[in-house]
Backbone:
């Protein structure tokens, strides 16, 4: 599903991440690592936010050679999402749904699952941290992605939403969508039977199969 070859990312601060070769099969994968180990750096490269040296392919499509096709296949929810304050969640959903070619019928279903009420019509400036997280999460499920990347999906959302999010991930997995999740908290690791666990430490990656 996801192939990474000769990956290298260096920040001006001196932090460097290198992955010689990584192949993730279809399914669900967990990335673990301490604060500052490089988890978000890798994810932001995979979704095309950060530039990098090397090659990343999803379902055989190269991020560098076919960036538009690649980006249609991958959706991403940030650990601490930031959106323009003056827009509402509904406006962001409308924009993302169009760019991702989402079926309109997905929207009310996802809103129900994620416990998104009337607040979605209000500007982002008025949102709590949980509402902001739900905004990032709903955008990540729109369209027909092959891979959904969720950075710290369970932090800041309430217990009921956590349970329904787990059911949603299981349902999408059964439908053939792959997931890459990160965590530095252990409590949700038992929710899924991971196909592999990637541990990142100081920009280096170790892959183990469950
Ligand atoms: N835009 C940036 N410019 C310079 N350095 C950065 C940038 N983003 C991250 N870094 C550095 O890269 C390293 C890895 O950061 P990264 O955000 O990938 O870690 P993380 O594993 O996701 O951490 P956390 O669990 O705290 O979210 C850190 O040393 C950080 O300071």
Residues:
């Amino acid at each position: 599903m996801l192939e990474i070859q000769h990956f290298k990312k260096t920040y001006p601060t001196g932090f460097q991440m290198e992955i010689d070769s990584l192949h993730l099969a279809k399914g669900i994968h967990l990335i673990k690592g301490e604060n500052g180990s490089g988890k978000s750096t890798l994810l932001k490269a995979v979704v095309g936010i950060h530039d990098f040296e090397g090659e990343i392919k999803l379902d055989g499509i190269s991020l560098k050679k076919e960036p538009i096709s690649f980006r249609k296949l991958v959706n991403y929810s940030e650990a601490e999402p930031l959106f323009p304050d003056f827009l509402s969640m509904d406006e962001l959903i409308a924009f993302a749904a169009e760019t991702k070619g989402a079926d309109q019928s997905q929207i009310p279903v996802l809103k129900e699952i994620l416990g998104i009420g009337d607040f979605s019509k209000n500007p982002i400036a008025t949102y709590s941290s949980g509402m902001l997280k739900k905004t990032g999460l709903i955008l990540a499920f729109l369209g027909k992605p092959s891979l959904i990347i969720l950075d710290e999906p369970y932090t800041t959302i309430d217990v009921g939403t956590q349970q329904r999010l787990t059911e949603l991930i299981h349902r999408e997995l059964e439908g053939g969508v792959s997931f890459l999740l990160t965590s530095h908290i252990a409590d949700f690791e038992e929710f899924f039977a991971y196909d592999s666990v990637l541990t990142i430490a100081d920009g280096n990656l170790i892959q183990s199969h469950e």
Q: What stands out?
A: Strands lie at 2-10, 16-24, 28-32, 53-58, 61-62, 74-77, 147-151, 178-183, 196-201, 204-209. The radius of gyration is 17 Å. DSSP finds six helices and ten strands in the chain. The helical segments are 39-46, 67-73, 89-99, 106-113, 129-140, 159-174.
